[in-house]
Amino acid sequence: MKATQRLHELGQSLWLDNITRDLLTRGTLQRYIDELSITGLTSNPTIFDHAIKNSAAYDDAIRERLKAGQSAEALFFEIALQDITAAADLFRPIFDHTAGVDGWVSLEVSPTLAHDAASTVTQAKELAARAARPNLFIKIPGTPEGLPAIEEAIYAGIPINVTLLFSREHYLAAAQAYLRGIERRIAAGLDPNVGSVASLFVSRWDVAVAGKGPPSLANTLGIAIAERTYAAYRALLASPRWQRVFNAGARPQRLLFASTGTKDPKAPDILYVKSLAAPLTVNTMPESTLLAFAEHGELGPLIGAAGDSRVVLKAFARAGIDVDALAAKLQEEGAAAFVASWNDLMAVIASKSAALGRAA
What we know:
Helix content: 55-70%
Strand content: 5-15%
Order of helices and strands: HEHHEHHHEHEHEHEHHHEHEHHH
Number of strands: 8
Structural class: alpha/beta
Radius of gyration: 20 Å
Shape: globular
């Protein structure tokens, strides 16, 4: 039995953090579902930027839409929705079999809307309606400006993947926004069963503090942050407030571990997968990490109740690392990186459109 299947049977969902047209058309994604226990998929502007920039697989789709005179953004969402809905259809049997717990795909709103809650909600509703798939998450950043949009989108019944969370405090703020949306639905007599995940980014912590903490604790801060967040997650789900909404028909907003590809070439390539095993969670991993774990992965102990994490966090605090300030910085940098990828993506589409138009 592959390590991916063992991890799945433990109760953690394995999602692929990648999408390309070739993955879909060549049957690779279906093979990952069948053989590697992949039960969902996430995307973001950087993933689509790399996919469109480095492949001719999208040229026909771009060429077909040139005559409509669409903007680069409109053209992108046409292309992205084609890929995302095709992936959603592949995962639909899993979604149905698990009664909506698993089998999800994710599409992000434009990162240029990060500071505009009203426009974020409008675009989330539009994308969800255009996709017309029950197993689609719309990704909204869990930034201070994004929290009102998350609450409103949940209240509107749109499943949400809260992205760009970097700390326990970020997670708790996002979870509270989700809960407020659910409570409002209950008060309005609406179905409280609206899916959501809260995505905690892990490996970027270790990149940010590389060389700044005790050498013996290299590549441990991200895991410590994840352990502390997981403890808060389990405590929150057990709280009376959450139990009341569950009793009314809601379901847990699952914690998702994102950015779990190892960045340090000196560290094990399956570090963050092995170290973050926990039921009722999701691990969304890059394709290379998935394949490495399937080939030579092994399971570590389940995440504990933040025991070792306190030791690690105290050691980094003594080294002058302010994790709260760093979490805010990482979130700001993550949002800026997505905007940069988005702008690059728009430029790539515009450039390809111009070249294909001249060749027509």
